[in-house]
Amino acid sequence: MLPAGAAGERWRGDDLRALFGRSTAVFALLTGPAHVLETANPAFLRAVGIDGGRTGRPIGELMPELAAQGFIDLMDTVYRTGHPHTAGDARVVLGADGAAREAFFDFTYDPRRDEAGNVVGVTVLGVETTQVKRSQRLAAEQRALLEQIVRDQPLDQVLEGMARTIEELSPGVIVSVLLADPDGRHLRHGVAPSLPDFYNRGIDGIAVGEGVGSCGTAAHRREPVVVTDIRTDPRWRDFLHLAEAAGLAACWSTPILTADGELLGTFAMYHRAPRAPQEEDLALSAVFARTAALAVERHRAERARAAAEAKERAARQDLAFILEASTVLARDLDVDETLQRLARLAVPALAPLCTVDVLQAGRVRRVAAAGPTRAQEDLLASRAPAGDADGAVARVLASGTTEIGRRAPAGPGPWEELGVTGYLCVPLTDRGRILGTLTLLATAGRPADGRTVALAEELARRAAASARNARQYAQRVRLARDLQAGLLLPELPSLPGATLAAFYEPAGEGLEIGGDFYDVFELGDDRWAFMVGDVCGRGALAATTTGLVRHTARAAARLLNDPVAVARAVNAALLERSPHQGTGFVTLVYGELARTGGRLTADFVRAGHTPPLRHRADGTTEILDVPGMLLGVTPDPVLRPGRVVLRPGDSLVTVTDGITEARSAAGVLFDEQGPAAALAACEPRPTTARAALDAVTRALGAFTEGSEANDDDRAALVITAA
Hints:
Blueprint: H1 5-20, E1 26-31, E2 36-40, H2 42-48, H3 59-62, H4 65-68, H5 71-81, E3 85-94, E4 101-113, E5 119-128, H6 130-150, H7 155-169, E6 174-180, E7 186-191, H8 197-203, E8 206-207, H9 213-221, E9 225-227, H10 240-246, E10 250-257, E11 263-271, H11 279-329, H12 335-346, E12 353-360, E13 363-370, H13 374-382, H14 392-399, E14 403-405, H15 415-418, E15 420-430, E16 433-443, H16 450-487, E17 498-505, E18 516-524, E19 527-535, H17 540-557, H18 563-575, E20 586-596, E21 599-607, E22 613-615, E23 621-623, E24 641-646, E25 651-655, H19 657-660, H20 673-680, H21 689-704, E26 714-721
Antiparallel strand pairs: 1-2, 1-5, 3-4, 4-5, 6-7, 6-11, 7-8, 9-10, 10-11, 12-13, 12-16, 14-15, 15-16, 17-26, 18-19, 19-20, 20-21, 21-24, 22-23, 22-25, 25-26
């Protein structure tokens, strides 16, 4: 049992002093209604910041900050009522001004009684939980920050949340985070929610170096820098006016570094009174510097990933643009149309305005202009550069190198009307030859960048190649047509007692010389010869063979009065060809016409060719299927003569297999019955050579509508007796 009365009270006091003398728990005995500090253990004195020699004075005088926080009132209540008071995690701010600190305690106020049971004081017994509380809050806040980092929250939000958290955990602290430039030579404003704007602007961009304030020096040294008194520290000489204006007196800066020591920024803690950091302050700085490093590294990684994805998307888009452009440029094999397509492709993908100029016969000709409106295009098209103009176009044509201007072109032009602020002039070069220029005109806010230059140069290169292909194609078409025209009659002759009509259509686009031909020539003595043939193959060899057949037939016909003999002469000439002159066979209908007694007699031979047709004046049609073998295959082909008598209005119609083997959209052959049916339906009767031919070609066109382009030449010859 405990002793009662004053002796018991003394025992308890002595016992408590002995018990808590070396304890980390806080203990104090307060006496009287003024709560005079009678005694306290060292832990109490350290916790509240009181010198051990200051006992014997009211606690309210020793710690005046307690009154405003309600703790003196709690002691008064315990003293007055005799009832104890217990509190957990009670927050108390100890000290004042720059020395103030936040602390947390679990404590009990017990009434002290004398032997009569009267309350004579208050016993204070407690445990400081500040570190536990701070650790718990720190852990919770750090978890929240890490979750924000993992969720890829914006960096400024994460850093601002961190700064505010620290300012809440450490009252009186002002936090600032500066971020390093990519080159690591300067620090830029990151976040500082409690610093004035003028101060943030003043230190934005400070150099990383020795003696450049706390942050510049810490970034340079890659280690914490503590300045306890800004006013007297030489490292703050250049920034003292800013610090004084902002009311800052101390600054502790910790560098924010990656695991391998790369500088990311600095984490600074300011105070408004000179102050040296305690151990927990430095620990707090280190923890949040590491957290900031995670946030900045994550942000940089995310930005790098986004930049890489953007670059990849741009590359894919550029590739798609170039591939689509290549397809569009090759769509029409016409030089001017190709270059006009080039201008339309460039706007607006590469620039708001574009012109294309070509060099022809030593002069510059504008072939295309593109813009947002027709009026702008017309304005550009109307101001073509002069051939001797000392402008961008002339310089690029002369040098063959791209030219970029950050202003409007120097030469005359509608630059002011169109708001032109820059240009990019690219040569159209193919195989070392400069064909012209592609000029992109920039307007306000849209200068040419490296990507635009690269795309423009690649587009120009492909356009130049497409223009060359178009030019070569046009030259080959002209050559093929000229050669084909030389193998066909320039015009049909006039035959006494007969009218003629002929038709020829080359396969595809007429790029190659066809193998189909027809001919009509005079033999003398009122006799005429005709032929329709088809040479196997196409191109130069087919043209050589066609010429051989026609010239051999013309020469032999004047010596031989026999179509079969003429065909054999042609066969012999074909067999005597050297291999480089061709080896293909020939189908042929050759005949000779003579007029007797108002009728036209045709003696003919059919050598493997589509049988000719006789279309009578009454509308009936007969296929003249006379047997005969191909020419150019065997030395002694089987050939049989044929004869047909044409009365007035009768027609002899001969076509090539390009007509009879034409297919409909469903794949059905026109066949030999196609021309026969077309002639049978021909009106009026009797018909003319032209009307008969038109009937066949119209029926052929209707039959093949919707089918693929013809892949074989087509020829026909109609001879109508008058």
